[in-house]
Amino acid sequence: MRIKSALAAAAVLTLAAACGGGGGESSSSPGAPVKLDFLSLAWQKESVAANKQIVDEWNKANPGIQVTYVQGSWDNVNDQLVTQFAGGTAPDVIHNDSPALAGFASDGYLLDLGAKLPAELKSDIPQTAWDTVTFDGGKGEQGVYGVPFLQESQVIIANKKLLDDSGVRVPAAGDPWTWDEFSAAAKKMTKGGTFGVAWPMKSPVNKTLNLALNFGGTFFQTAGGKTTVKVGPEEREVLQRIHDQLYKDKSADPAALGQGTADPLPAFYKGKFALLPTGVYLRQQVAEQAPDGFEWVTLPAPKGTSAQQGAVSQTLSIAQESEHPDEAMKFISFFLNGANQAKLAKGDWLLPTSQTAAADPAMTTKENGWDVATASAKDLVVAPFLKVNGFDEWKSKVATPALQEYFADKITLDQAATKLVEDGNKVLERYQR
Amino acid sequence: MKRVSQYVALVAYVVFLAFPLLWLLSTALKTPQEMALTEPTWIPREPTLANFTDAFGEQDLVGAAARSLVVALFASVITVVISLPASYAMARYRGLVNKIAIGWVLVSQVFPFILIIIPLFMILRDLDLVNTLPGLVVVHVTFTLPFALWMLQGYVRAVPPELEEAASVDGASRLRSIVSVVAPLLAPGVVATLLFSFISSWNEFMFALVILQDPDVMTLPLTLVRFTGPEGVARLGPLAAASLMATIPSLIFFAIIQRRLKSGLMAGAVKG
């Protein structure tokens, strides 16, 4: 009975204590430090540690501006933010990715940072990265709604033994395979139950759209203020080439087709296939999981008429309703300085936008393919879909099923193109009324 | 022979039920290399506690579990306290208001919660309950209550009115017959409702995500999700270790109260 009473009392006390736990408030009493909430989406061990370390350093050096580190989750952050923006309780500093910013910016929830950006931060990040965070703020004027700091490029992770045994030319940063060479190499590596390549296509849209830029494929065109979908020869090139590897050359492992990004890794370690085209961040899992003695290398993505790839950025933004936007900007400037961006990029195995960070020895070492990964950043341009209003719905309702069916060889490229254009335009039209 | 087949079926069912938990345990004890094998192993070749060390070292799992426990206990008890008399009224009194109430309970189950999350958030904000555990308890009670009412109403209907009439003949007032006759017979229903409410609250993620913002008040589901990244990529080892620990309090809660989860109390109660 005593135990029950004690538990009940403890529960009441805990609940009562929590009543006063309102966060997100900004101190306004004179002399009290300004309090900022920083919603971070870092999730890898090293990345979380880097985030916490930088926040701790800031808090120690700036007793007048104290930052509370709040960890969020990529899968739910936009649901969370929609509610918190509407309720007026959003964090001051928000980590997100650039595709999500357009909607929040046009709804007036994010602050235009254009006039607040320190010159040093602005000049350290190339214009192509700033382009990923420049949107219409809902009043017809372009604004900068975030600071871009991490980007992802596509590379090829290769089984070194199978690559060496095949005798094909090993591509290097600045001298990638052409798509023809890539297809030929994959064919050469296909033998004795081993496939040359694996294309996990559970989520095919971003990957294929980013690579389509190799041949100038943009998938969207804007004329007279109206955006429509287009699937011409440029857009079809990469789609057709991947399909050929699967069904014509039979050099792509069909087992990987329905898998998510990281799912083919066990088969990769087992030597079931030699090449895995993927985002740079997957190197982290390979480095962590690969069995002892398994050697792997990072190769640049193939090039078509150019090596360009579409890119989005991870970003830090300031909520429009933040009571301390200047202090929040100071914190962002510190958080994303060159040295800190290098730490963050290393923790997340992504590419820093800061040119100072990109020159950091940790970003250019050959170990774990950092030299190839970092070099690929120069090929990144704004993903054409980034500023298309209605892209998310087009992606989930039209493009994902159409491309999945095409890569499963259930429909032809013409049929896929028809779906992407006709069904897609119906979706986009609703967003442009 | 029949008994043997019954035992075989029972064992198969237990294995089926226990599989996720055992797999979670196995995964929690594996190294990253072993998790990436094409032929998964049941018993880790080189068992490691590193995943538990990482999970507990990186996140305040104990604090989050304590907060989840407090919220789930309060939410489940309040749900039962409210739904017990309400379900009695719904089951015993027939009238227009009653029909409307039952209809409303059913309709409330149809609403996707994402539709009401913003208005609900505004209400909680005006009541100064955002970012507090009492606010989360209120929301959990609100959303568990309709189904709890529906569940308990079924149990009340199963209690023969004749028992209350017999008590009345013996001079018991309506209140006395409810307290002394009906309530004890509803014990299994109350326990089932309590369990349902507890588990619903313990596992609830979306409302907690929206309402709780301060790291110091976050519940367990919000803490577990920190081991996951975009597009389904996750840190499987620490996630499995943390998830395993997260199941333990609800298992203990179930073990404590499952003894009362028995039926057949009323067998033969109204035989002539």
From TrEMBL, chain A:
CDD domains: PBP2_TMBP_like. The keyword Signal applies. It holds the Pfam family SBP_bac_1. Gene3D superfamilies: Periplasmic binding protein-like II. Keywords: Signal. Residues 1-20 form the signal peptide. The keyword NADP does not apply. PROSITE patterns: PROKAR_LIPOPROTEIN. Transmembrane segments: none annotated. This is Carbohydrate ABC transporter substrate-binding protein (CUT1 family). The lineage of its organism: Bacteria, Bacillati, Actinomycetota, Actinomycetes, Streptosporangiales.
Automatic annotation (TrEMBL), chain B:
It comes from the Bacteria. Keywords: Cell membrane, Membrane, Transmembrane, Transmembrane helix, Transport. It is a multi-pass membrane protein. The keyword Ribonucleoprotein does not apply. GO terms for cellular component: plasma membrane. Pfam families: BPD_transp_1 (PF00528). GO terms for biological process: transmembrane transport. CDD domains: TM_PBP2. InterPro entries: BP-dep_ABC_trans_perm, MetI-like, MetI-like_sf. It is found in: Cell membrane. Residues 65-257 form the ABC transmembrane type-1 domain. The keyword Lipid metabolism does not apply. The chain crosses the membrane at residues 7-25, 69-89, 101-124, 136-156, 177-199, 236-257. Belongs to the binding-protein-dependent transport system permease family. PANTHER family: INNER MEMBRANE ABC TRANSPORTER PERMEASE PROTEIN YCJP, MALTOSE TRANSPORT SYSTEM PERMEASE-RELATED. This is Carbohydrate ABC transporter membrane protein 2 (CUT1 family).
